[in-house]
Specification:
The protein is α/β, with parallel strands linked by helices and 162 residues long. The protein has four helices and nine strands, in the order βαβαββαβββαββ. It is 25% helix and 36% strand. The chain binds S-adenosylmethionine (SAM).
């Protein structure tokens, strides 16, 4: 699986602690990846770390799961979104899973001070294009450490087998 824009999220810790040996974390921030590596210590070698802009050149062996919490919504340029989706299509196996979380339609218009695009499941489906079937969607009112509430929308898609 790949955690796109995984940053210094602890998702990778949980996956590695459950014995997964096929986890990749991709992020444009070297500092965030370094924090995760340091936190994981000796377990960090079980993870493939890719320091890259998701819209730029990078490669990955085919994965069963593509996970992205709060990275895709930073792509406000249509060309960047197209390049993201092209990578996703190159990387996710047929029958594989795509989980994308973004600010929801009623969520904030900025994230970490930057403009973002807000989505619901239909909006993400439109971005992915043909060949993905929505399996599940949910909203979540995320409370930040400062007490602010951010409305998230998470959607899980399955890539069509044919
Ligand atoms: C709001 S943080 C979310 C981090 C993590 N996914 C989580 O849920 O805790 C967004 C992350 O996306 C990364 N990011 C933003 N734009 C990116 C891009 N174009 N390519 C790769 N990573 C990107 C940032 O560096 C940051 O780590």
């Amino acid at each position: 699986m790949v955690d796109v824009g995984g940053g210094d999220s602890r998702l990778v810790d949980h996956l590695v602690s459950r014995g997964l040996r096929c986890v990749t974390v991709l992020d444009v921030s070297a500092a965030a990846l370094a924090r995760s590596r340091t936190r994981l210590g000796e377990l960090a070698h079980r993870v493939r770390w890719i320091e890259a802009d998701v819209t730029g050149p990078w490669t990955l062996s085919p994965v069963d799961v593509w996970h992205d919490r709060a990275a895709f919504h930073f792509l406000t340029d249509a060309g960047d979104r197209a390049r993201y989706v092209a990578h996703l299509r190159d990387s996710v196996k047929r029958g594989g899973t795509v989980i994308i979380g973004t600010f929801g339609l009623d969520g904030p218009e900025r994230c970490s001070g930057l403009p973002i695009c807000r989505y619901d499941a239909a909006g993400i489906a439109a971005q992915l294009g043909e060949g993905f079937t929505l399996a599940e969607t949910m909203t979540d009112a995320h409370r930040t450490p400062t007490g602010a509430v951010q409305s998230f929308s998470f959607s899980r898609f399955v890539r069509d087998v044919s």
